[in-house]
Amino acid sequence: MAGDKDFEPFSFWKGAQDVLKNKDGTTLEASDAVETVRGQLGDALNARNLSFLFGSGCSSFRVGNAEVGIPTMGPMAKSFLGTVGDDDDAPHVSATERDTLKQWLGLDIGAERFANNLERLMEALYGARFVYDGTEEANPKAVAAVVDRVIGKVAKHVLDSCTTGPFARGDDSVLELYQSFYQKLQFRDRSLPRPWIFTTNYDLFNERAMDRRGMPYCNGFSGVIERRFNPAMFRYSLAEQLDISNRKWSAVDSFIYLGKLHGSVNWIEDGETLFPIRELTDVPGSPEGRVLIYPTPAKQSASFVSPYADLFREFQTQVVRDQSVLVTCGYSFGDQHINNIIFQALTIPNFRLIIFAAEDSGGVIRQLRDLGDPRIWHIGSDSMLSIRSAHYFDAFVERFMPELPGTRIESAVEKVLHDLLAKKAGGADGD
What we know:
Distance between the termini: 36 Å
Number of helices: 13
Largest sheet: 9 strands, mixed
Number of strands: 18
CATH topology of the largest domain: Rossmann fold
CATH architecture of the largest domain: 3-Layer(aba) Sandwich
Shape: globular
Strand order of the largest sheet: 2-1-18-17-16-3-6-12-7
Structural class: alpha/beta
């Protein structure tokens, strides 16, 4: 595990209580602060019903100045809008398309309000599509064609960002973090219900990490040659037979449920059958036919149709269970349809929400903090300190998740040796 000196100072709030403050107002030492969070998080992770919600921040990982994972929305927007396409067939918006959008719609895609937010751009484009939908007049029809083309380019850019990059060319930095997360998670008490991982990400890091760890999981798909989405699969578990004569069974302790709330890069809609959503073993390069909720104002409406309705129902069912804990990481609380379910869960007295986010977060996170509710935990560093912030996914996995049994023993031995050597050195100095 990375040393505490490699991470920045952080805070841990339970409602209005600053957990890392001593009674005299001083702040705990870094190692003690980490142990405090790890200990309390360890207790929370053994709650009867445990869920995680991973956002785009979990799949982003920078080594130096290079992104080796999937960029978050800000960098993704800059890489798309910062380049002008040579012509209308180019992957980026051409000068002609930009002029058309500005002249006919007053939409300047180079404006500051779009600079870090492709979602806001897609909202404007979908609004224009709604206005011009079905028009037969020549000029409006030509504008509608430009709008559709630009929407397609944004969708293709989002898809390419999730399927290409160093992580697709052999760099396993992000994948190893996910593997470490699942390795630690599988030591959860096997007598408890199996945990759920919910994610808004389209990428395949979760699936690949579990495959490499040899961990069985259910993502709602069944079949072998043709894997199709069947929500009934979420009612099943994987068990091992302990006593053949007495037919005793026990759930496999490494089994995981995975819910991809916004779809996946390898899901397609294939045929008008009872189960039309199919999971592919490869990732096609075209966005056509993909079953994804792109960042548009239609996101909340899209969550009401299959397979999203089934996935959101599972999310809602899980977080409102008795003694439920939801841990969010890399999620900025920017999706109202998800937030509404979390708000509903907060009406349950024994529900706990653990947020890993920047200490100075605004918006919904700040509103939740201001409630002063001790069931809402907030752990994170100041956003201005961006070297290795405590709320990043790597810090959550390496620093705060409870250590594996073998690692715990090794750490105890290391601490004893360190203390003994320190005492010996102190005695030598005093001689």
